Amino acid sequence: MIPNSPVPPAPPGRIALYEPGFAADPHAAYERMRKMHGALVPVELSPGIPATLVIGYLQARRILNDPMRFPADPRIWQQQVPASCPVRPMMEWRPNALRSSGAEHARYRAANTASIDAFDQHELRALVEKITAGAAAEFRTVGRADLLTQYAWPIAFRVLSALLGCPDEIGARIADGMAKVFDVTDAVRGNQILGQAVAELVALRQGRPADDITSRLLAHPAHLSDEEIAHQLVTFYGAGIEPLTNLISNTCLKILTDEDFSAGLHAGWSAVRDALDTVLYTDPPLANYCITYPPYPTDIDGFLLPAHQPVVISMAACNNDPELTRGSTDVAGNRAHLAWSIGPHTCPARSHAYLIAETAISYLLDAFPEIDLAVPAADLRWRPGPFHRALEALPVLFPAAH
């Protein structure tokens, strides 16, 4: 699909998740979906790519905890999907933990978890503090910045590259490829860039092992092949750059636009962790994902899910399900949300993501106590795409340091 070209509407009865209008106000769309369809909604992820979007919290929990009826393997589905499909790179089969089930999933996940958990949390915090200070120093004397491209993204990118033992040159290409995959505007090319750069990283660490995730994967007793290791790294980059960047920037936006919450932070009544949980609950950076592919027609509350058609969990809509919230808007400190997923595919790096985001935001608030949005909040734009909740930019103003 050519960027900015006319996009065909979804067929009658299906709701298009790829239109700019959905990105601009997804919560209004979820509310309309709930009134029209209930907990399970017929949608299109891209023109001609039907799926079911789960917006009911209880239904999502049942699906995510039932890998037998809802496996994550898309190989039969993708046989009917052209390679040029813009969402296919985000959904297609890869030999990694995210897209496997059963014994293979256990093998991949064991290697991933061991490689992640080997990092000392104190050393990670020191690394993040150093990278955060360096990012802030680049705009401290200017008096203005884009917190998305000049702060959140560089921090996520540099921290992840350090954890994976990835040189900047290779990491920059990986990040470029991953951004194209998430935006689904040039996803096929992004997938190619990503695959080549990750393969180079694996080859580099084979010859020069170090204290990093890539080297640990190479040495793990699961004896992953080079291809398997490359695809574990794709998952790390997919989960570690875009969603983490958007978690930091979306939380900064929450603090900058919610006066009561901001006052509570400065007075010590609430913490940055509360702000992160509020965003993860109400507006998670990966809004719609956790995709499964039922191998046969499967009934959920009288709704028959077609065989081999994607079932997508809307973490954003499920977290805001009226059956769960009962009309309450106070979710600070509540971690019943689905933003990290649940079940066998729960994010294995939750504590690391929390630490990175919390450290980055705490530093920003301490270093720039008089920071404000540079434009009205209503003028901020959200990037279209069926999966993420991502700003295009987050411009801010603050007194320049001399």
Write a short abstract of this structure:
With 402 residues, this protein is of the alpha+beta class.
Please give the structural blueprint:
Blueprint: E1 15-16, H1 20-24, H2 26-37, E2 40-46, E3 49-54, H3 57-64, H4 75-78, H5 88-91, H6 102-117, H7 121-137, E4 144-146, H8 147-164, H9 168-183, H10 187-207, H11 213-219, H12 226-240, H13 242-257, H14 259-267, H15 272-282, E5 288-292, E6 298-300, E7 303-305, E8 311-314, H16 315-319, H17 322-325, H18 350-367, E9 372-373, E10 395-397
Parallel strand pairs: 1-2, 3-8
Antiparallel strand pairs: 2-3, 4-10, 5-8, 6-7, 9-10
Helix pairs in contact: 6-11, 7-8, 7-18, 8-12, 8-13, 9-10, 10-12, 12-13, 13-15, 13-18
CATH class: Mainly Alpha
Instruction: Output the CATH homologous superfamily.
Output: Cytochrome P450
- CATH level 3 topology: Cytochrome p450
The number of domains? 1
Shape: globular
Major sheet = 5 strands, mixed
Strand order of the largest sheet: 1-2-3-8-5
Poorly predicted regions: 1-5
Roughly what fraction of the amino acids lie in strands?
5-15%
Number of strands: 10
**CATH architecture descriptor:** Orthogonal Bundle
Q: Give Rg in angstroms.
A: 21 Å
Average pLDDT reading: 91
Structural class: alpha+beta
Span between termini: 48 Å
Structural overview:
With 402 residues, this protein is α+β, with helices and mostly antiparallel strands. It has one domain (15-397): Cytochrome p450 (Orthogonal Bundle), CATH 1.10.630.10. Helix content is 51%, strand content 9%. It is built from 18 helices and ten strands. The protein has helices at residues 20-24, 26-37, 57-64, 75-78, 88-91, 102-117, 121-137, 147-164, 168-183, 187-207, 213-219, 226-240, 242-257, 259-267, 272-282, 315-319, 322-325, 350-367; strands spanning 15-16, 40-46, 49-54, 144-146, 288-292, 298-300, 303-305, 311-314, 372-373, 395-397. The chain has a five-stranded mixed β-sheet. A three-stranded antiparallel β-sheet has the order 4-10-9. α7 (121-137) runs parallel beside α18 (350-367), α8 (147-164) packs antiparallel against α12 and α13 (242-257) crosses α18 (350-367). The longest helix has 21 residues, at 187-207. It is globular. It starts with 14 loop residues before the first strand and ends in a 5-residue tail after the last strand. 46% of the residues are buried.
